Amino acid sequence: MVYGDLQFFDIIIFAVVAAFIIYRLRSVLGKRTGFQKNINHRNYTKKETKPEEAKIPQLKESELKLEAIYKKVSSFNHKEFLEGAKKAFEIIITAFNKGDKGTLKNLVSKDVYSAFEEAINSGANDPNSQFYSLVVDSVEDAKVENGTISISVNFTSEQITSDNEESIVKNKDTWTFEKPETSTGPAWLLVST
Question: Could you tell me if residue 13 is inside a domain?
């Protein structure tokens, strides 16, 4: 064999390899025909997105101020909030009566905690006091400002001392709860009593 014959043989091998690669690419990628749409010239239309209208459920007359929250926070649920507010009221008052500062610290703002702490230190709390009844009277105020949801609730509570039903003490309180607008958790902070 002469040197020139080897070059011819190399060219044939490269041609076969190239033909095989082209065949495999064509089977994987496919072949473009004249009937296909040109994908580079698609008409992209921007869909107009309408802002979702707030779905405001049926509210009692005493809860109408909560409409302001529903208009700005789509995930708000007034029933969950009011149930949570009642539970928070009971937990906070019970913790106050027992002098449980650790529980109070997690549920109230620094200013409210300072006031509770001062009252506990001066002996204004009564460890023998317990709940007899608790009612949410109405929503005093509800707003969303500067990324914070703020709701003030009017409560009427009755407490008894040492299981004596003749010692019922009736209190009316307005408490304000807050949480960040972007928060998805159920935790609200008591910021004013």
Answer: no
Place of tokens 């709940």: 131
Is 172 a member of any domain? yes
* CA 32/CA 17 separation, integer angstroms: 23
Q: What is the CATH number of the domain that holds 97?
A: 3.10.450.240
What does R_g of the chain's alpha carbons equal in angstroms? 36
Question: Which residues have a Cβ under 8 Å from the Cβ of 55 and sit 6 or more positions away?
Answer: 70, 74
Asked whether residue 15 is assigned to any structural domain, the reply reads no
Over the stretch 33-83, which tens digit does the pLDDT of each residue have?
Answer: 656 565 565 555 555 555 556 678 888 888 889 999 988 888 888 999 999
- Based on the structure, what is the number of domains in the chain? 1
Model pTM above 0.85: no
146 torsion bin: left (phi>0), alpha (psi -120 to 50), beta (else): left
